[in-house]
């Protein structure tokens, strides 16, 4: 080994590089040398405080500009809609119909708000005790709300009509009262879903049922629970109509210190998002009932949002609508909060209960149950594949167990979710 080492080249000698005058004069080096060690005391304690003051001033100015803009906009867009409105009618006495009746009635004490109901006992309760004895019975209603079972009495002289009847019963109900409806009476739809046999939305159902293709129509949607409206908690919703003036009028009618109303012209987007989110909420409830965890929940809702976007945009909806209040906002509320009827149906399905038992125990309609099959038929019409929503429809039809549905969904091709619909179509996956 010693002999071999004699033939090796001598090891290089490494010496630390000396700092030349040129390097010492470098501004970079000078700047680095000025940085104090972490434990050194500095005289610059005032600078951060000064910076905070500047930032606060910028934020304050930005907020003041926003407030001034808001006041200016309101003064320019003031309307006498509320002043000229004498009567509003609400069709249906469920939770949301009751909450909207209370919302409008509270804005103007001398405004007559008529509720058209089927139950005489509930009518007497509202008229004499100012309480809806069937829904939201723990809340008192404004005294200017009156209830009746007479369609002619309720609709006579109405300036606006809120439709709060479940979608599956709307056609027959509207047909029975059509003779009392003024052709120019604006209908504000609170109902979300698709008619099972025809795949129609409320914007199609109302004109057809009333026999008037020009019946003024507005849809009201967004993340909102009736109980929180009754509590007057801050809420934001959107009204959509092809008639901008009509949408603005309804905005002025409803907006208050606790209810913010935006306007849109995308009726299709608002309606389809409102219908499909109920089906997705059932899926979210199933995941919760099966205790599949937060990761699974997030993945499911993300996939469901994509499916809603695929179908809605194919039908002409605007992407901005789907990312707004009536889209993402309503989806988040319905999928993640226990107050959602559709989510609770899914929760109980995921826990092993039978659908018939669940529905028999409910006193309100979960629109997602009847909408699920209609959504899939609509998707076939527009040639769009919806894995998650299809799985929900098959579970509801008792053709697939929740556990099997999860296995099928997890075995989908692991690829870009944006193109999964087309891959499912090509490889022929069924659920």
From TrEMBL:
Subcellular location: Plastid, Chloroplast
GO cellular component assignments: chloroplast; cytosol
Documented EC number(s): 1.1.1.8
Pfam families reported in the protein's UniProt record: NAD_Gly3P_dh_C, NAD_Gly3P_dh_N
One of the record's GO molecular function terms: glycerol-3-phosphate dehydrogenase (NAD+) activity
Region described as Disordered: 1-54
GO terms (BP aspect): carbohydrate metabolic process; glycerol-3-phosphate catabolic process; phospholipid biosynthetic process
Pathway: Membrane lipid metabolism; glycerophospholipid metabolism; Lipid metabolism; Phospholipid metabolism
Domain Glycerol-3-phosphate dehydrogenase NAD-dependent C-terminal: start-end pairs: 266-406
Boundaries of every Glycerol-3-phosphate dehydrogenase NAD-dependent N-terminal domain copy: 87-246
Catalyzed chemical reaction(s): sn-glycerol 3-phosphate + NAD(+) = dihydroxyacetone phosphate + NADH + H(+)
Record keywords: Chloroplast, Lipid biosynthesis, Lipid metabolism, NAD, Oxidoreductase, Phospholipid biosynthesis, Phospholipid metabolism, Plastid, Transit peptide
UniProt cross-references to HAMAP family, sorted A to Z: NAD_Glyc3P_dehydrog
Family the entry assigns: Belongs to the NAD-dependent glycerol-3-phosphate dehydrogenase family.
Classification via PANTHER family: GLYCEROL-3-PHOSPHATE DEHYDROGENASE, GLYCEROL-3-PHOSPHATE DEHYDROGENASE [NAD(+)] 2, CHLOROPLASTIC
Protein name: Glycerol-3-phosphate dehydrogenase [NAD(+)]
Species the sequence originates in: Triticum turgidum subsp. durum
């Amino acid at each position: 080994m010693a002999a071999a080492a004699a033939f090796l080249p001598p090891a290089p000698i490494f010496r630390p590089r000396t700092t030349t005058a040129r390097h010492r004069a470098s501004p970079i080096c000078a700047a680095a040398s000025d940085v104090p060690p972490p434990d050194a005391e500095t005289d610059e304690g005032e600078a951060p405080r000064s910076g905070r003051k500047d930032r606060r001033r910028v934020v304050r100015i930005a907020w003041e500009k926003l407030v001034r803009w808001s006041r200016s906009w309101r003064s320019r867009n003031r309307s006498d809609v509320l002043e000229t409105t004498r009567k509003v009618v609400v069709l249906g006495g469920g939770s949301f119909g009751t909450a909207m009746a209370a919302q409008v009635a509270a804005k103007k004490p001398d405004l007559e708000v008529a509720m058209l109901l089927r139950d005489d006992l509930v009518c007497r309760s509202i008229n004499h005790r100012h309480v809806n004895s069937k829904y939201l019975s723990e809340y008192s209603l404004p005294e200017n709300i009156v209830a009746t079972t007479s369609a002619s009495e309720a609709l006579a002289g109405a300036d606006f009509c809120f439709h709060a009847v479940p979608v599956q019963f709307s056609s027959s109900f509207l047909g029975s009262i059509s003779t009392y409806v003024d052709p120019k009476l604006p209908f504000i739809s609170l109902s979300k879903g698709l008619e099972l046999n025809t795949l129609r939305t409320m914007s199609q159902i109302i004109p057809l049922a009333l026999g008037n293709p020009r019946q003024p129509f507005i849809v009201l949607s967004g993340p909102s629970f009736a109980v929180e409206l009754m509590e007057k908690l801050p809420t934001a919703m959107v009204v959509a109509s092809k008639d901008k003036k009509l949408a603005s009028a309804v905005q002025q009618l409803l907006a208050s210190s606790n209810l913010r109303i935006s306007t849109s012209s995308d009726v299709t987007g608002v309606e389809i998002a409102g219908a499909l989110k109920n089906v997705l909420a059932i899926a979210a409830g199933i995941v919760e009932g099966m205790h599949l965890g937060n990761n699974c929940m997030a993945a499911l809702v993300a996939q469901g949002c994509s499916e809603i976007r695929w179908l809605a945009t194919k039908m002409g909806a605007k992407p901005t609508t789907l990312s707004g209040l009536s889209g993402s906002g309503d989806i988040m509320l319905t999928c993640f909060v226990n107050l959602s009827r559709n989510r609770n149906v899914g929760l109980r399905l995921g826990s092993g209960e039978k659908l018939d038992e669940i529905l028999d125990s409910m006193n309100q309609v979960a629109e997602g149950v009847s909408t699920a099959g209609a959504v899939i038929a609509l998707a076939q019409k527009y040639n769009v594949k919806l894995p998650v929503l299809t799985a929900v429809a098959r579970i509801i039809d008792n053709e697939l167990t929740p556990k099997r549905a999860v296995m099928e969904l997890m075995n989908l091709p692991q690829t870009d979710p944006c193109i999964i619909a087309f891959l499912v179509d090509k490889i022929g996956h069924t659920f």
